[in-house]
Amino acid sequence: xxxxxxxxxxxxxxxxxxxxxxxxxxxxxxxxxxxxxxxxxxxxxxxxxxxxxxxxxxxxxxxxxxxxxxxxxxxxxxxxxxxxxxxxxxxxxxxxxxxxxxxxxxxxxxxxxxxxxxxxxxxxxxxxxxxxxxxxxxxxxxxxxxxxxxxxxxxxxxxxxxxxxxxxxxxxxxxxxxxxxxxxxxxxxxxxxxxxxxxxxxxxxxxxxxxxxxxxxxxxxxxxxxxxxxxxxxxxxxxxxxxxxxxxxxxxxxxxxxxxxxxxxxxxxxxxxxxxxxxxxxxxxxxxxxxxxxxxxxxxxxxxxxxx
Amino acid sequence: xxxxxxxxxxxxxxxxxxxxxxxxxxxxxxxxxxxxxxxxxxxxxxxxxxxxxxxxxxxxxxxxxxxxxxxxxxxxxxxxxxxxxxxxxxxxxxxxxxxxxxxxxxxxxxxxxxxxxxxxxxxxxxxxxxxxxxxxxxxxxxxxxxxxxxxxxxxxxxxxxxxxxxxxxxxxxxxxxxxxxxxxxxxxxxxxxxxxxxxxxxxxxxxxxx
Lengths: 308, 210
Fold this sequence. Notes:
Radius of gyration of chain A: 19 Å
Helix content of chain B: 25-40%
Number of domains of chain B: 1
Oligomer: heterodimer
Largest sheet of chain A: none
CATH class of chain B: Alpha Beta
Shape of chain A: globular
Number of domains of chain A: 1
Number of helices of chain A: 12
Strand order of the largest sheet of chain B: 3-4-5
Order of helices and strands of chain A: HHHHHHHHHHHH
Low-confidence stretches of chain A: none
CATH architecture of chain B: 3-Layer(aba) Sandwich
Largest sheet of chain B: 3 strands, parallel
Structural class of chain B: alpha/beta
Number of strands of chain A: 0
Radius of gyration of chain B: 17 Å
Number of helices of chain B: 8
Shape of chain B: globular
Mean pLDDT of chain A: 89
Strand content of chain B: 5-15%
Distance between the termini of chain A: 45 Å
Structural class of chain A: mainly alpha
CATH topology of chain B: Rossmann fold
């Protein structure tokens, strides 16, 4: 009993750290993009103020039970993803809950929030929400393919379905990272990350010009505050997952922050350089080169690591 | 959510609506919402002042002055002024100059969809007294008669610098707790509605847009 209480406490600490880090990372990225445009940009802590402001709204409009549950599902997806990935390797506090086969659960959890959101946004009844949800799920289905292939490649390579063991196998220097030992899987997954972070050229889901911010159109007050908080947690969870799977994991918080920040800069650099794709272009993009690289990664992993 | 008891208030007639639109809209009146835990209100007001999201709806020619605000030259982001694409998530409504009667309908819909607390900035002389359009057949003269305004930035056009100064002044007002436009609108709802219906002849929308 007391062991579970302690582990629950550790989980709360891990989620809090991820939320704070995610919000700060959002501020840092906004500031970086502003600098690349020759501006000063918002303060780094703007994310915290925004969440607090939305929570401080005096009224809120609901459209029914599913509308309430949409953001709740969303944040469940974010926290769920985070809690089954070891944030730090070999750490008592940030080890989180891991078990054999958690990589499959994590892939499902990543979709969970988007599906819940789709139900909630549809109940809002706003036509733009529905367009955004349709685009979001279509794009999600497309960029999941290269990521799933990369994950299968890793499973073949390391012979395990546990993220914890995959991180463990990469310890002991940069030469053991998946980035070096299985570069094709890493490339396929990094291309998939461009889509899942939702920055340009794949920001058509929440396109602020034609369909005011997509699925979130109708959400306000506490709902949108919760969703912004989830955005931070989910971004941190995704980055930690990528760091664990491809970049050797981390053994302390400083290493975690440096590595995840470096991973996040990849979509940011792409976003700062490329204009937006239409939804059909973005789906075609993911189903062509990244998927082919993913298939190549699976086949080569099978030949190379599974030969015996 | 946090709202006063609306049950004893009379329902809105929604006379402008025809079936099936009558089914889609709610008949409840807005009510003023008093903040819980007054001591926290100062902190909340600080957060509201430091996170101003402007509704991206240019209601008149003055809206052209809003665009340069977001560019590198003026960079309103550094004062935590951002844009918001939907009225649901925005808290500042900038009335960009003259408002024709046709636009006024959309202004009212958008304003009512914003959540309490919400702030309105009147940009340009036209919002104060009609400006150069004061005797025009299809514009209104004082926006203050139709929705409550917290702050005016006069001029024709005011420069982006004047807008920035206006936003900083708005922040001071919010921090001082003087921007209670949403509650004022709910308290004087009948007066505002009568004024709106006086100029909008073809009223084919609900009496209050939730």
